[in-house]
Amino acid sequence: MKKELKDLLKNHKEKLENSQKRLCDIYNIMFSLKDNVLCEYTDGFRIKTETFGSIQEKIEKTASGLYEKVGANSAYIGLYLENSPEWVVAFWAILKSGNKPYLINMRYPDSLTNSILKTLNVKYAVTLKETSLDVEDILISSLSGSSLVPDGIFENEIAFSSSATSMNEVICFYTGYQIAEQILNFENIVKLEPRMVKHYKGNLKQLSFLPFYHVFGLFAVYFWFSFFGKTLVFLKDYSSDTILKTCKRHNVTHIFAVPVLWHTIEAAIISAAKEQGEKSYKALMRGVKFNTALQNLFPHFGADIS
Description:
globular
């Protein structure tokens, strides 16, 4: 691990450990590296980037607009967005406005979501476009206030739901302290798997495949990497073709995902190899067999060779 990276990890770890471990502390440390690239995404044929500094400016304006519209009520406000720069802006803006975000699972049926919103007494939801939910929609594009948000109202709690395979109403609550402890787990994980912090061409880029309204996506994809100033790569959609092209074009280094993603990518690669002819397909299968055997014997060395 390079000294610069070691110093960064140590510095942010010590700052968090020596803080009160509130969400405002996490926010201030996370957005201290203003020139680091927070995210990349494809806009037509161009790759667009947003730094931590530029996103923070949007958070401040959005928080001001939300504060002017609904006030600081320590109330839950729904966050109805897919992974995107807007999600990051809305998440922190809700907290900074003196309210608490409920991360709405956009794959839930409306009936289940509305039931949870009622339980949490949610009256508003920040979104890109109008929804059919039983709340007042607040379009994020409309939130750009000019008033100064008072110090000391930054909220310290979030809520989200489980994957709801049973379709029962389940709500999980996390404070800043609990989130800080999750972030600090990185040290043990890096000791067990040093490749977690491996860079490529000087960058570490995490594909934002898992939704941030899911516990795995929120902590392993968003918090673990953004806290240390690393880059999120956002997808325009979740098709296998888009995933493969995005990884290649953006030089993605890390992907955390559930098995279905790998099955989808495997099917796409095999299909592409078959289209190139029997010779290409057999060559791919021989390579897969060899590299799988090598990684079974020498996990780290085998992965590097692959």
